[in-house]
Amino acid sequence: MTTQCAACGAATEVLLDFGKMPLANGFLAADQFGVERFYELRLACCPSCRLAQLVEPPAPALMFNDAYPFFSSTSRRMAAHFEELAADVLRACEGSTDPFIVELGSNDGILLQHYAMRGIRHLGVEPSANVARAARARGVSSLCRFFDLQAANEIVATHGQADAIVAANVMCHIADIHSAAAGVAALLRRDGLFVFEDPYWADIVAQTAYDQIYDEHAFYFSVASVERLFGRHGLELIDVAPQAVHGGSMRYVLSHQGSRRVSARVRESLEREEASGLHRREAIEGFRARVETSRRELLSLLRRLRREGERVVGYGATSKSTTIINYCGITADLIECIVDTTPAKQGKFSPGAHIPIRGHGEFAASRPDAAVLFAWNHRAEILDKERAFRDRGGKWIVFVPSVCILQ
């Protein structure tokens, strides 16, 4: 199937088709099963501008609304990461006597709270009303709307231009990427910095982390695709820095064309991507083959444990788990429940497969034999927290980069 690139308009070919999927964060009550929404999850990679993308992501309002169940502050590791990111951005604004910092997709204020506590001018732009309210409760200034060129112009008219714009795991969510990029260019001061980080396409491919592919992630950036996409809007990629969060992310630093010196790291990263063959069809074909192998092996392992009478639960009702569960055909007879610390998800059912979501206390109380680590990107934090599970013989099942039981 041929489609059109959302960034440059070139013809692209669908290279991965996961079939019908429910909304990744569409955790639901039993009386909502009959009205659950599904869409076609298909991935294409543009041979021209190098951007990996969903062919037809669902409408943004279906995913980001007053019932959005993801709160960034639930992870200690992410809280520490955002504190460091906030400090890095503030250091970059040292030349300004009264810096104004804007965050796109500010969620519950986990990053901006560090500016609010110090009386630094800031503004969060967050489309999901429930998490925006949580941010305001922390004293964070939050504008509840989607970010685009119109929003940027309104912010400039009210607050002036920004010294820095930050977005963490957000730009990949914005389907109208050209309006967002144009908005960044309009909102950012001539000498300002735009800093964003998102899951890195090269890491997704290398780790066979196909659970990163779901409805909210409209785009999967590489250094090459970021340079070409934002260059169309007069923004120049001046630095990159790999990040360990979200299973492998890249931080991109951009400024207005010609306003800052370009780090050698940009050229080096572009050369690495080219040398690795990341953007060649062969790389995606290999990725697809590994995805299919992972599906077979995970399903086979779960079925074997079931035959042997072992009880298996899922750990972390993540948005990523929706892809794994539904693509692999995992049902409640293989995983009896998924435990999660987020109150908004507890007592509900997973999208599509309708596996019950239980509170974290159920993990120790029910004493399962094995647990599928859906929240694998928080692996170190979780394994440290749940040492008692492993000490009594509990098995951790992982599927990134390959399916296995941790030894």
Task: Please describe what this structure looks like.
The chain is of the alpha/beta class. It has 3 domains: 2-52, no CATH class; 72-258, Vaccinia Virus protein VP39 (Rossmann fold, 3-Layer(aba) Sandwich), CATH 3.40.50.150; 282-405, NAD(P)-binding Rossmann-like Domain (Rossmann fold). The protein is 34% helix and 24% strand. The chain has 14 helices and 18 strands. The radius of gyration is 21 Å and the shape is globular.
What's the layout of helices and strands?
Layout: E1 2-4, E2 11-22, E3 38-45, E4 52-54, H1 60-63, H2 76-92, E5 100-104, H3 113-116, E6 121-125, H4 129-137, E7 142-143, H5 149-159, E8 162-168, H6 177-187, E9 188-199, H7 201-207, E10 219-220, H8 223-231, E11 235-243, E12 249-256, H9 264-276, H10 281-307, E13 312-315, H11 319-328, E14 338-340, E15 357-359, H12 361-366, E16 370-373, H13 379-385, H14 387-391, E17 395-398, E18 404-405
Parallel strand pairs: 5-6, 5-8, 6-7, 8-9, 13-14, 13-16, 14-15, 16-17
Antiparallel strand pairs: 1-2, 2-3, 3-4, 4-10, 9-12, 11-12, 17-18
Features:
alpha/beta; Rossmann fold; 3 domains; 7-stranded mixed beta sheet; globular; 34% helix; 407 residues; 18 strands
